[in-house]
Amino acid sequence: MLFRIQVLNTMLVGLTTVMAMKMVSAEGRDPVLHRVGGGRYSWAPHVNFTQWATNQTFYVGDWLYFGFDRYRYNVLEVNKSSYENCYERNFMKNITRGGRDVFNLTEAKPYYFICGHGYCFQGMKVAVYVRYAPSDTMPPVFRTSPPSSRAPTVTLPLFATAVSLIISFFKFQESYI
Ligand SMILES: *[C@@H]1O[C@H](CO)[C@@H](O)[C@H](O)[C@H]1NC(C)=O
Ligand SMILES: *[C@@H]1O[C@H](CO)[C@@H](O)[C@H](O)[C@H]1NC(C)=O
Ligand SMILES: *[C@@H]1O[C@H](CO)[C@@H](O)[C@H](O)[C@H]1NC(C)=O
Ligand SMILES: *[C@@H]1O[C@H](CO)[C@@H](O)[C@H](O)[C@H]1NC(C)=O
Ligand SMILES: *[C@@H]1O[C@H](CO)[C@@H](O)[C@H](O)[C@H]1NC(C)=O
């Protein structure tokens, strides 16, 4: 019986470690909101967005924030050639809403945005190169970030799994005694 309790303890410690690792791995890095141009209303002419973008690291799950005068400017997602040529017809997506607009960077790929009404020619264009966050590619063992307040929601189902695993382990043992 004592032996069994020790085994149970060892298993619990082991499973808790696995659970802790899973919790951390499920989290990764918190998404970052990138203010395009660096300010609150910096989607505007004569800002060097290339310079701004080179100084940022965009990861999958991050957000772009476009702050601008919605009566003058807009934000259109376009392809590479339209971006290069400031070609605003047949754009891919109109991001424009109220002038404080966000865009979710959901894929690891280049995104291209321009402003219509000819403002692209005044520099209102930005290319954003999105990559996977380091935590998405790193093996879970090397992650060290502490669990956050979101952890308990993850723990409960995992704990239930752990308990059922232990129960089935002992059922398995019993059938062989
Ligand atoms: C923007 O900045 C980049 C990098 O500093 C530079 O190469 C480019 O010429 C600038 N573009 C304009 C339009 O000033
Ligand atoms: C990049 O950002 C850092 C920190 O915000 C700033 O000190 C630096 O001047 C920026 N570099 C460029 C090229 O914009
Ligand atoms: C934004 O992107 C992240 C990462 O791909 C995703 O988890 C999240 O659900 C997205 N949110 C919205 C509102 O689309
Ligand atoms: C980019 O989009 C423009 C406008 O829709 C279209 O005419 C052009 O063929 C597209 N280019 C590529 C390489 O997809
Ligand atoms: C983009 O969407 C905004 C808001 O829905 C709308 O007012 C505007 O006309 C649209 N622009 C284009 C070029 O479709």
Tell me what you see in this structure.
By secondary structure, this protein is an alpha/beta fold. It has a domain at 33-136: Immunoglobulin-like (Sandwich). Helix content is 37%, strand content 18%. The chain has 5 helices and 8 strands. The strands form 2 sheets. A 5-stranded mixed β-sheet has the order 2-8-7-4-5. α1 (2-27) packs antiparallel against α5. The longest helix is centred in the N-terminal third of the chain and has 26 residues, at 2-27. The radius of gyration is 25 Å and the shape is globular. Residues 7-26 and 139-177 have low confidence and may be disordered. The protein binds 2-acetamido-2-deoxy-beta-D-glucopyranose (5 copies). One 2-acetamido-2-deoxy-beta-D-glucopyranose binds at residues 74, 94, 96-97, 116.
- Regarding quaternary structure, what we see is single chain
- Poorly predicted tracts of residues: 7-26, 139-177
Give the overall form.
globular
Beta strand %: 15-25%
How would you spell out the order of helices and strands? HEHEEEHEEEEHH
Which distinct ligands sit in these coordinates? 2-acetamido-2-deoxy-beta-D-glucopyranose
* Derived structural class: alpha/beta
The name of the CATH architecture of one domain is Sandwich
User: What is the CATH topology assignment of one domain?
Assistant: Immunoglobulin-like
Family: Belongs to the early nodulin-like (ENODL) family.
Keywords: Disulfide bond, Glycoprotein, Signal
InterPro entries: Cupredoxin, Phytocyanin-like, Phytocyanin_dom
Protein name: Phytocyanin domain-containing protein
